[in-house]
Amino acid sequence: MDIPSLTITEIKTGLLGRQFSAAELAAEALRFAEKENGVTNAYLRFCPERALANAHQVDSRIARGEDPGLLAGVPVAVKDVILTKGVTTTCGSRLLARYEPPYDATAIARLEQAGGVILGKTNCDEFAMGSSNENSAFGPVRNPVAPGRVPGGSSGGSAAAVAQGTAVVALGSDTGGSVRQPASFCGVVGVTPTYGRVSRYGLTAFASSLDHIGPFARTVHDAALLLQVIAGRDPNDSTSANAPVPDYTAALDGNVKGLKLGLPREYLKDLTSETGDVIARGVEILKRLGCEVREISLPSTEYAIASYYIIATAEASSNLARYDGVRYTCRSNRSDTLAEMYRNSRGEGFGAECKRRIMLGTYVLSAGYYDAYYLKAQKVRALIARDFAQAFAGVDAVIAPVSPFPAFRLGEKVNDPLQMYLSDIYTITGSLAGIPCMSVPCGETVEGLPVGMQVLTRHFDEATMFRIAGALEQSRGAM
Question: Of the residues 21, 93, 131, 154, which is catalytic?
């Protein structure tokens, strides 16, 4: 069986037609993923016992004539910031190198209830802090399209696994673009749902008011199916929304005629020509499909980077205070006092980027600076949300680039944090507003590097987002 080409629908058809069993598919997927992992370093660990046990459950359901679930037998990769009971979850950090969670995240439980088969945990920037997947304590991930380049971050391992074909779909987390940017760089579909659409229970907290769990897939249809499985109200997460979850695949009819799309002028001025040319071609495709594309303005965009890196680091400073060498974290052996143990454990355990963000967040929350920085950043966040609300009064969706440039070379920006942060200049606005947004493959540069188009819609209107992305995907496939 050709794992890299399989879709969710093809897998279910094959299982029900007895062309192969879920156990056979899982064993082949594990063999292929382990063999290919040396190219990308996408996986930190595999969990064959769990994968095969779940696969056998799917086979048993089919043998009994039961519905095996929407994700029956589908090989799935999971970012290593999402808790998996009994399977080491490191968050890409030395601090958690031996941590085995005592429970599953809600998204994991729902995924496996739907028949999904988790192959392993994927590499990521430490505690999801990064835009290139070079901040992992366990080595960088390499882009399967161009191994000398980054896959994007922080969910680069999940994006690389799907692009490489070692998983059919994957879960990542997105705080300021960590699903969409890797999806764009690796040429796959990546979805950041409305804040509250998917439970954060069991997602290791980075910035709690910004964190999302979202799917990666090779097709829009598969991404829609995966989101449908993991979405919905969860009593374990007070921020999860009690909103009905529609059948997202029903929106994938290819009909976008008459939709009004806004193209923000602020998102075009910093584009490299290689990315801008691809986005322009994507816009022309949508116009040919009957969409009306008009230029709009999101005037608060210029303040987004500053606002995001104040809010996100402030919340990170608070959330990461729990990693102190006392509970579930590795502890320094070079300590004679409690204060030294705290200091040495955190100093030895955290990488440079985590330390940078913790210090910045602690500073902006300190006495005398809270109002000047954190409070002002929250006010800017409200302005950004208002910009989108006003835009959606006149358009059905916003389309935009995902990143100013395609995947850059490993090591190219690692010593320039500001340039690295600017990788997310077009994705953090949607995160700050809490609206659904996704990256869908739009084309390639002359060097063959993938470029994604970002689609953003109103709160809880993922259906329109999928409709537009699906139409673009179908039209590009027919070209």
Answer: 154
SS3 68: coil
Instruction: From the candidates 178, 199, 345, 439, give the one annotated as an active-site residue.
Output: 178
Buried b (16+ CB within 10 A) or exposed e, 246-257: bebbebbeeebe
**Which own/partner contact pairs does 326-335 have at CB distance under 8 Å and 24+ positions apart?**
328/96, 328/99, 329/95, 329/96, 329/99, 330/94, 330/95, 330/96, 330/97, 330/98
Residue 325 half-sphere exposure, CB side, CA atoms within 13 Å?
A: 19
* pLDDT score of 271: 86
pLDDT at residue 313 greater than cutoff 60: yes
d(CA 269, CA 319): 35
Rounded to the nearest integer, the mean pLDDT of the chain is 96
Q: Please, what is the angle between helix 8-16 and helix 22-40, to 10°? A: 150
Choose the catalytic residue: 79, 158, 300, 317: 79
Identity at 218, one-letter amino acid code: R
**Strand locations in 19-135 (E):** 43-46, 75-79, 117-122
Residues facing residue 440 across a β-bridge? 453
Superfamily of domain 1-479, CATH level 4: Amidase signature (AS) domain (3.90.1300.10)
Query: Per the confidence metrics, is the pTM higher than 0.85?
Result: yes
Tell the burial category of 393 from Cβ atoms under 10 Å away from its Cβ (0-12, 13-18, 19+): exposed
The predicted-structure confidence for 3-35, as pLDDT tens digits, reads as follows: 889 999 999 999 999 999 999 999 999 999 999
**Beta carbons within 10 angstroms of residue 239's beta carbon:** 13
Report whether 386 contacts 380 (CB < 8 A).
no
CA nearest 189: which of 387, 7, 323? 7
Annotated active-site residue 431? The verdict is no
DSSP type of residue 407:
P
439 is catalytic: no
81-123 pLDDT, tens digit each: 999 999 999 999 999 999 999 999 999 999 999 999 999 999 9
Angle at 404 between CA 157 and CA 133, to 5 degrees: 20
